[in-house]
Amino acid sequence: MHTVVVGGGIVGLASALELAERGLEVVVCEKGSIGSGSTERAAGGIRAQFSTPTNVELSLASMAVWSAFEERFDVDIDYRRNGYLFLARTDETTAALETAVEMQNERGVPSEVLEPEAARERCPGIDSQKFVAATYSPTDGFADPHLALQAYARAAGDAGVDVRTGTPVTDVLREDDGTESGGRIVGVETPDAPLEAEYVVNAAGPWARRVAAMADVDLPIAPKRRQMMVVDSETPVPESDPLTVDLETGTYFRPERDGEALVGGHLAGDDPDRDPDGYDRGIDFDWAADVLETASEWATYFGPESRIKRGWAGLYAVTPDDNAVLEETVPGLITAAGFSGHGFQHAPATGRLVAELIADGEASLVDIGALSSDRFGTERERLERNVV
Ligand SMILES: Cc1cc2nc3c(=O)[nH]c(=O)nc-3n(C[C@H](O)[C@H](O)[C@H](O)COP(=O)(O)OP(=O)(O)OC[C@H]3O[C@@H](n4cnc5c(N)ncnc54)[C@H](O)[C@@H]3O)c2cc1C
């Protein structure tokens, strides 16, 4: 075997597909079923409005894939380029947004800073009095994570990837080279049999720290529970509305179909360091009431007659600076995890970069120097923190 990918979420499957398309023999070990991790619990947001150059570059490279997805995979993933609207209530947030927009524009992202009234033209339901500025980019949007994940799984299988569900990796094996830390990766252990491999890809999302530990590597990637709900709003949310975020309260919504909206936010109930196997996958009543009330204070759609239809919780895999780890961590071990809430949208580029690291020995699609794990605990971690 050439490569074993640990994790059948969108990052693992995109990596496996890209490797197979380069003619390499790949097995994906997924301990549960395809979709049992975070990917199918995501909001599906896809944006280039980030505050670090690396995240913007990952977005642009991924958007090229999302835009041509239907032609390549023959699946309509309901990709809607409605834009993203970020709303600021303070001068400090506005300044951070202005700096980010300048950096984004230098890279060709058509984002812009708007006055509150102009923001209301993009999203008629906001109370513009509450805000001092906004940013908007028309090429941002969202897609259906379930459809995208299943399309990647099918394409990987068609390309020759051996996708094994119900197959947990229980150990990552390293050559005994006489050193304490261990030598090159030589394979993995599974309940069925050990699998020899030249490369192992850690794409285990919220479980990535555990998989890294199997190879005697410590990475600061923590599971963090996040909740979402579908709301039948008092006033229908237009299907053309952008994904709209109030940066100060952390609440956001995006239109679903038929006037409903997906609503989320990081208020109460947003607990770090959950056991990734044992967390509550439903929503907390207090969280739902709190988020809906907060959203109703700035978005007129969510009046008292709004009804919560259903909701769910999933796990972000967060790092201290909210940026991913993407690197060859020890010889033969590729880490592609810790995406901190942007792993769905960045998976297409990540898959390509994992394949480049393995097949070419270096990444070229995007400069991923900022995503190496040696940044943790240094000044780089503070300076390159992703704030939007
Ligand atoms: C509520 C919510 C909203 C979100 N919204 C967005 C959004 O709008 N846009 C965006 O880009 N991202 C969003 N995200 C984040 C996104 O879901 C993740 O970043 C992304 O799905 C990560 O994909 P992954 O493949 O790394 O992980 P996962 O999909 O979690 O896959 C990891 C897989 O590894 C498997 N695994 C773990 N350990 C082992 C083992 N030892 N052996 C074998 N298999 C193993 C797991 O079973 C799992 O299936 C959101 C997340 C949540 C929870």
TrEMBL record:
Pfam families: DAO. InterPro entries: FAD-dep_OxRdtase (IPR006076), FAD/NAD-bd_sf (IPR036188). PANTHER family: FAD-DEPENDENT OXIDOREDUCTASE DOMAIN-CONTAINING PROTEIN 1 (PTHR13847:SF287), SARCOSINE DEHYDROGENASE-RELATED (PTHR13847). One of its GO terms (molecular function) is oxidoreductase activity. It comes from Natronococcus amylolyticus DSM 10524. Keywords: Oxidoreductase. GO terms for cellular component: cytoplasm. Signal peptide: none annotated. It comes from the Archaea. Residues 3-357 form the FAD dependent oxidoreductase domain. The keyword Oxidoreductase applies. The keyword Oxidoreductase applies. This is FAD dependent oxidoreductase.
